[in-house]
Amino acid sequence: MDYKIQLCLLIWTGSVIADQVCYEELGCFDNNYPWFTFFRPYPFPMSKEDVNTTFFFSNRALNVQNLHLLGHSLGSHIMSYVGKNFTDPKIYRITALDPAQPGFQGRNPMIRLNKTDANFIDVIHTDGRPFLPFLGLGMTVGVGDVDLFVNGGKWQPNCLLDGETFYKSFFEIPKITVAILYNLATCSHSRAPRYMAAAIKEPCHMWAYRYNAQTASLRWTDFVIDDSCDAESCSKMGMDTPQLPARGNFAFETSGTYPFCKFDPEADQQMKRILI
């Protein structure tokens, strides 16, 4: 029987739905090891040797060619460390849910997620703004076989600063609370696992269109290269992403509430034969 085994490490999900899908439907496990500390002198959240030991301890006798790793934020890079330990054969797939930007973007591929870490890597971008001054926590550039920039990959609907400033004058700055700042810093970042959970659980297909992520601005819809959907120009979020032949950068739009998906009947019609 051909089956895939999912190993999931989620950090800062902030979502009961995302956790439920991960643990109940995918068979993932929770790992509360303190992977990251500001006092650690190295960029690795944990040594590769320890990751390898943890991996084998929890997943003995697995065929890595059937292994699908999912990680959120720092978890994306931790999963890449596991992948780097397997080169012949490689791990089947890594799904990186808004991989962490600070301390990783622009660094050597050996200490961050890289497309060579598995046979297939898909990346979900939801919070790709500069860390300073905009508190963006996710990587801003494509690092996988398929990179999906949801709503342009910078701000997510119904998160603070969704197209508007959250204060209108200098005198309103004192009204900014710690809760507002926390939500500003984490809302878009935590959407990635929620989107993936909805893509797995719900019947709506999240079709994505070719996207020029290098030049996109806040008006991200202006940088969709091709608004048609066929085998070479369209991808989608979910478990069946590797089945689609298109590779590169893609973008699509969501709503601001669960299940987030906006129905695209034209794309459904054009792509249904490929997913059979």
Automatic annotation (TrEMBL):
Q: Does the keyword Disulfide bond apply?
A: yes
One Pfam family per UniProt: Lipase
The EC code for this enzyme is: 3.1.1.32
Signal peptide range in chain numbering: 1-18
| GO molecular function terms attached to this record | phospholipase A1 activity
Instruction: Choose any GO biological process term that the UniProt entry carries and state it.
Output: lipid catabolic process
| Catalytic activity, reaction form | a 1,2-diacyl-sn-glycero-3-phosphocholine + H2O = a 2-acyl-sn-glycero-3-phosphocholine + a fatty acid + H(+)
Q: Which UniProt keywords apply?
A: Disulfide bond, Hydrolase, Signal
Q: Where is the Lipase domain?
A: 65-245
Q: Which residues cross the membrane?
A: none
Q: Which GO terms describe its cellular component?
A: extracellular space
Q: Which family does it belong to?
A: Belongs to the AB hydrolase superfamily. Lipase family.
The identity of this protein, by name, is phospholipase A1
